[in-house]
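Sequence, structure tokens passed on for absentees:
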Amino acid sequence: MMLPVLFSIWGCVPEISKECVDMTNAASTYLGIMVGAIIGSVVSWWIYYRQKKTSVKQDHILSRINELEENHGDILKKLADFDEKHESYFDAMQELKRKMDSILSKTDTDSSK
């Protein structure tokens, strides 16, 4: 009931009021502006909603990537520590082998005399 009164301010809108024969240019313009504003608002809201949803997913992915990078750094540090220990054990075994070879060679030379 209120809608035809509002549209009567803008001119004759035959789609709404029965006394009209044809829509005026002014009413057509106002109706076009209103429909355009409604469609524009819906499209803008949809774009905002999609961008917000994408932004939230991107933030989640970036935080997960940061966590993985930290874990990767920790693993690399542990591997480096393991490699250092392995090298020191290998060097100690080489030294032990050299000493054993030295003792064995002394024993062989002492027994051959």
